[in-house]
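Hi Q.,

Before the meeting this afternoon, I wanted you to have the pyridoxal-5'-phosphate prediction in hand. No need to reply - just skim if you have a minute. The sequence and ligand are here:
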Amino acid sequence: MKGRTRVNHPPDVIVPADNHPLVGPIYQSVKFAFESLEETIRAYRGDRPGFFYARNSNPTTRQLEKLLAELQGRDDCIALGSGVAAISSCLLSLTRAGDHVLCFVETYGPSRQLIRGLLGRFGVQHTMLSIEDDAGIERVLAERPTRLVWFESPTNPVTRIANLGRITQAAHANGALTVLDNTFAGFHNHGQYGIDVFVHSLTKYASGHGDVMGGAIIARDELVRVMRRETIELGALLDPHAAFLVMRGMKTYYLRHEAQTASAARIAVFLEKHPAVARVHYPGLAAHPRHALAREQMHDFGSIVSFDLVGGLDAARVFSDALEFFAISPSLGSVESLVMPAPLLRPGGLGAEQLALSGIGDGSVRLSIGIEDTDDLIADLDAALGRVSEA
Ligand code: PLP
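Predicted structure with the ligand bound:
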């Protein structure tokens, strides 16, 4: 074999079946081959296990999918290139012209915009309520045939809590599918409810280190089969290198969650007592309007703490600029703490009434608590709030 052939057909290295690597390898290959055409066709049709082309599936990405499905307590998962890729793939593959989707003013902005804009252009209609309007949700579902109820809990950023029991019951009684964006709560929460589809941004808690983007759709087999066909056509499957990084992050998922949540709980209590703070939004606080419901539904309350500053927008500016350990940055859930003040949190495309319903005011601030020492974080917050009081 000449060199220019050899470099394209390097020697095989066979890892014996009884000698597995403790960390799964990155299968950085787009194509997979069998020894014969017949076996290739059988694999392509799904009549035998195996891989064909990495836009359909790849062993590294598949390992992550199996892990996430198991953690969320459902049959299967599709891992995609970002949280929004998971959201758009799910919305596009589960709806058709003439369908109706129920969503909420608190729904994550790009999801809401996809439902109103992209799906709207393809003839899908929607109704938008507040996630806490249980009676309204039940009324709409009873009155109007609905394909999907699309929601989050806790919501971003003011941590409102959806009543999962009432929503799933009303949806199923009326033939609607429930889709919960479970990014904020995590894989260890909400599996016990009759949610049909979970979506997650893996960019946040799953990868945990702010160095990779990803998304996941998790559901029962029958729904994943439908969505997988179309997600292959939409073309956003997670790349194996990114899947490897998310899997590495997942090894410390529970430890990070515990540490971040414990720190967030202390910080929420600190903020609640501070005179420059008008109101704290954290489901773990007894003063949260749905604290009892959150306690019933969730194992823990997460690491997002939002609050409203007495001094409004000016105070939010001074406060964010004064912080040392909290970067003014999008995203959330990773090891370093972040802050997002009101001008960056305001949802686009809402009318005045809907904006008021969203609960985000001029002085609203969202903190994503990382794994730094809690005493340092509290001292930093205290100093920044001191600057607000001086200003
Ligand atoms: N869902 C929620 C609740 C989010 O907060 C985000 C991002 O902030 C996403 C989905 C989108 O995820 P990604 O940024 O990975 O596309």
